[in-house]
Amino acid sequence: MGITTHQNIQPAQGGVKITNDPPKGLRANLLGSYLSDPVSDPAFFDGCARPGEFKKLLFGLCFFHAFVQERLKFGPLGWNVPYQFSAPDFAISARQLLMMVNEAPPDALPLTALRYLTGECNYGGRVTDEHDRRSLAAALGLFYCRDALEEGYRFSGSPLYFAPPEGPHESYTALIKALPSAAPPEVFGLHANADITRDRQEVQQLLDSLLATQGSGGGGGSSSSTAAPATSNSGSGSGGPTAAALSRGRDEVLSDLVADVSRRLARPFDIEAARYKYPVDYYESMNSVLCQELVRFNRLLEPTRSSSSSSSSRGSSGSCSSCRSVIHSSLAQLAAALRGEALLSEELDRVGAAMFDGKVPALWMAASYPSLKPLGPYVSDLCERVTMMSDWLAHRPPPVFWLGGFFFTHAFLTGVKQNFARRHKVPIDTVEWEFVCGSGSGDSGGGGDGGGEGGAAVVEAPADGAFVRGLFLEGARWDGAAGCLEESEPKVLFSHAPLMLLKPVSSALTGADVTASAAHARRHPHEYECPLYRTPERRGVLATTGHRCVALTCLEPHHTWLIPPLEKSHLEARRCDT
Q1: CATH superfamily of 26-190
Q2: What region holds the Dynein heavy chain AAA lid domain (predicted)?
Q3: CATH 1.10.8.720 occupies which residues in the chain?
Q4: How large is the C-alpha radius of gyration of the chain?
Q5: Highest mean pLDDT: which of 343-347, 387-391, 455-459, 509-513?
Q6: pTM assigned to the model
Q7: 4 falls in which pLDDT band (50, 70, 90)?
């Protein structure tokens, strides 16, 4: 066969395609590792001078390989990024295990070196997320440790999953075949609620796939050719037509939906008046933060004189005029097209199809803050954010900030640091965070200035820092009485995080080294560095617009909250866009 770009694709289309997908399930994964190279080779399996230690660590490595692959099915709860761990990762790790155990002194095992090679090089070489790397290292520590060499060492709270005693190859495969076909999420370091989250994700994917197969429907008067419209998962708001609209035409339903969303959206802010009332102040960065936030919201809300749609929006941080008024412009043009007064472009058709399905149009999201909400909750959330900004503009900065209500949260956090640095005349790069948690919940039941159970009594802002609310915990809950993290309640997927004081501190004032590395090193063993994400999807640009960490008190040492050895739940903190 010659090398050419003009290949005949018919043989490829008519040929038989074969794929080699990894096994599904913990039992199938373990069995696949023992029946594949190099473990299936007798020369390898029985080739170690210290068979007892080698075979226990080898079984732990096989379990670890299945562990990291099976966590993928839990979506973002398992790994922030869906990594493709492969058989070569396992094979090279197994060969390194044999080599290093054979070469080790009789009274020692190179467990630290093995953890580094396997966790940082072989498997860790694929891991790009900082917190995924931390979880991977914690998981590997359960299998490559001294305790794993003891008889009866369990890999989870279940007595079924343990390190078996030394034996022939057949004894290991027989043990694996006796395991249940489906393993509980506790085996993978997750809370039992993770099964509910996974099932909901699978059902949502199925419903989205079914929705995508439906046609766009007919004209305004026909109902027989109109697909069943989607409904919102919110009790209120314009989340798409309800079942009562089945007898109406698609265009008629969409026209009512466009009118309802347009009516509910707030009017744009007067930026010049805001800048006059809150001028640039060297010692008050919140003035600049407010004005910048209002400009960003106006890009979604402010009507323009141009009739062309904003088809080249590039995100919330862009400054081009095409990002302005994307919602109002698209709604006005779509309404005109539905009335027959304008042409229905391909872009407007996509906007209408998304709204009819109860989804936020991609055109809006290109100029919006990150959100995973459907259309109805998204519009309600946008109105609450605008209300918070309007109250701030009309009165004063709130004593408790709704952290998730900001368009660009990083600007707010930087502004708090900047105020502290300028007030105390210290370099901003020496400023770090301390986190002081309140006794109650940080929920207020919506937008506004309230702080919920713990924030309602807050009437004055702190001298340094800021009170924030609106955070949620997944995989754990906050015990306000004990002031620490506790296990999640069964079937409660999200719980409110406490009201929190973000308190800046500086080494220039305290004389202590509070750089990030030093702060991590001196962290209290009962403080868990909890990742903080903008949305449950946990995707996006890291550092400035991605996530941060919050130190939360826990009863057990902090590492037990990473990959719990015995039925300890996994914890994530999320901002309020859940």
Answers
A1: Region D6 of dynein motor (1.10.8.720)
A2: 54-194
A3: 26-190
A4: 28
A5: 387-391
A6: 0.78
A7: low
